[in-house]
Amino acid sequence: MPSLMPGKAGTKEAYAIAVIGKDLRIAVPPGAMLHYRLQPDAAVLLMTTHRGEGGFALLPQARAAATVFAKYIDRIAAPEVVHRFQDKAYALTKLQGGRICMTGAMLQAFHLGVGDRLLVVKSTTVALSYTPVEIWRVKFAERGLREAVENMAKLEVF
């Protein structure tokens, strides 16, 4: 998994860029599957990362159930239905062949659309982040991190 700015402490480690397909599926890059020990058909929790920003965090449901997110998982009545807790969107879904299965309502809740390009980033030890490339491009440019912007263009696209 490449760092977007090798040698600079604290920079994001990115797996790839994932494109939201017409079938509403989003790839989980092989490196992320391995790092987060995800099975190709694993149950996952998706949740808002930053209010008002597009994208989501992905947590394996079994691992999320052992964290502070357990209280939300227990309140989610049905899979693939968006629930809101404390002004954040949450949804349970399953991977199918290593791809995240979304619905139109889930895309809307996470401010995303078909064709969006998402930077797949190691977020925490339990969460994987999917954020629109353009959001990262702006953030990096504002901080003068041109090398990170250039390195995003070199990532594999799924």
Describe the structure.
The chain has helices spanning 30-35, 61-64, 70-73, 104-109, 133-142, 146-152; strands spanning 14-19, 25-27, 43-47, 56-60, 83-85, 88-96, 99-101, 117-122, 128-132. Helix 5 runs antiparallel to helix 6. It is 23% helix and 28% strand. The chain has a single domain (20-133), classed as 3-Layer(aba) Sandwich (Chemotaxis protein chec).
The gyration radius over C-alpha positions equals 15 Å
**Named CATH topology:** Chemotaxis protein chec
- The low-confidence runs, each spanning 5 or more residues with pLDDT under 50, are none
Shape: globular
Q: Report the count of strand segments.
A: 9
Query: What is the total number of structural domains?
Result: 1
The helix fraction, in percent, is 10-25%
Largest sheet: 9 strands, antiparallel
Helix tally equals: 6
Q: According to CATH, what is the class?
A: Alpha Beta
- Overall pLDDT, averaged? 90
Terminal CA distance reads 15 Å
Instruction: Specify the structural class.
Output: alpha+beta
The second-level CATH architecture is: 3-Layer(aba) Sandwich
| Element-by-element helix/strand order | EEHEEHHEEEHEEHH
Q: What percentage of the residues does DSSP assign to strands (E)? A: 25-35%
What are the defining features of this structure?
alpha+beta; nine-stranded antiparallel β-sheet; 6 helices; 28% strand; 158 residues; Chemotaxis protein chec
Please write out the topology.
Blueprint: E1 14-19, E2 25-27, H1 30-35, E3 43-47, E4 56-60, H2 61-64, H3 70-73, E5 83-85, E6 88-96, E7 99-101, H4 104-109, E8 117-122, E9 128-132, H5 133-142, H6 146-152
Antiparallel strand pairs: 1-8, 2-7, 3-4, 3-6, 4-9, 5-6, 6-7, 8-9
Helix pairs in contact: 5-6
